[in-house]
Write a structure and sequence with these properties.
Length: 216
């Protein structure tokens, strides 16, 4: 079976409202359609790569290709789990968690997007909390880092709510112009202190060696 070669296909992270997992083909198509509907206010750009400004057909294809690309390139020293976020069985966004040389660094970073019509309901915070549970409780991470443009107030608010500490200002580019970035760091101790979302993990054990997390 395919899951024998890609055990991450059986990975599940659940919170009271959400489930994070790899989508089936029809669910991936629904995610692509959701992205076309809109992810953010067109007057702002939260991503360094402005992929949300692609024409609708290319934007949808990009969502699908990102999913396939990260899955095909999984290896212990460099990986990204591109997990779909489901609310009541319906895909509402994507929560990605990434790491390089995880066995050595024990650090993860993350990216995410949420369909515009699902925003303002606390889903963004809950899906990041689910990702952090996977990273710290599941994989044994020592820290998580995050970066957001200073104008991306929603993302910064999620980081602060979950206990991330500000970790300096960086310089990035957004739509061809300078954009300052707020860097954050979350230690294991701060995660434990601020965690408020219950989460469970299923299907992790077969994935550990693939993610460089087989040994402490």
């Amino acid at each position: 079976m395919l899951i024998d070669h890609f055990p991450v296909l059986g990975l599940r992270v659940r919170t009271p409202r959400l489930e994070l997992r790899y989508p089936a083909p029809d669910e991936l198509a629904a995610l692509a359609d959701l992205a076309v509907e809109g992810i953010h206010d067109p007057d702002t750009m939260p991503f360094g790569n402005p992929w949300t400004e692609l024409p609708p057909d290319q934007l949808a294809r990009r969502v699908v290709q990102r999913h396939w690309k990260t899955l095909s390139e999984l290896r212990p020293d460099s990986w990204a789990l591109n997990l779909a976020v489901f609310l009541d069985g319906v895909p509402v966004g994507v929560q990605e968690v990434e790491a390089d040389d995880f066995a050595i660094q024990r650090q993860v970073h993350s990216e995410s997007w949420l369909g515009l019509r699902h925003q303002g309901q606390g889903i963004g915070t809950e899906m990041r909390a689910a990702m952090l549970h996977l990273a710290f409780a599941g994989l044994g991470a020592d820290e998580a880092v995050s970066v957001g443009y200073v104008h991306n107030h929603a993302s910064l608010a999620v980081s602060r709510k979950l206990g991330y500490a500000e970790n300096g200002i960086g310089r990035g580019v957004s739509r061809g112009k300078l954009a300052l970035e707020q860097r954050f760091r979350l230690s294991r101790e701060a995660w434990q202190e601020h965690r408020s979302v219950e989460a469970t993990i299923e299907g992790l054990e077969p994935c550990l060696s693939l993610l460089g997390a087989g040994e402490e």
